[in-house]
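Working notes for the structural subgroup meeting. M.R. asked for a predicted model of this chain before we commit to crystallization trials. I am recording the input and output together here so anyone reviewing the notebook later can reproduce the run.

Input as submitted:
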Amino acid sequence: MNSDFTLAIHSLTFLALQPDRMSTSDAISESAGVHPVRIRKVLSLLKKHGFIKSKEGTGGGFLFAIDLSEVNLWDIYKLTSEGALQPKCPDSNERCVVGANMQRVLFAIFLGAEEHLGEYLKNYSLKEVVDLINKEE
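Returned structure, recorded in C-alpha cell form:
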C-alpha cells in the first residue's frame, strides 16, 4: 500500500466535509501535511475517475462529485495501490527448485491476501470514514 491511498482518502474526506464550497489543493495539502504537488497528483487521479470535480481560476478548487456511500475504500485502493502487496523477488537461480518457483508461489499467496484485503475494505464507505471523523468532534 502506498501513501497515495491515504492521501486520496484524506482528500476525499476533506472535500466531503465541505460540500458547499470549493477547496484548493493548498488547503488539502496543508491538512494532510504534504506538498501541494503530491495532493494535485492524487486529485488529478480522483478527477479522472469521476470522484471529484474541479473549477480553475479565481474562486476555483475541488468538490466531491458523487454520493459518499457510493465510494468504498476498496475503490480507492484499486485506483491508487492495486498490486502494491505483490512481493518484490530478486532474480533467482532458475536451476534451483526454490529459486525457480519462489516468485510464482509468493505471487499467488499475496494475490490472495490482496483479495481478502479487498473484501475487508469494501465494508467501509467514505460516508463511514466521514461519520467516524464527525463522531470524534
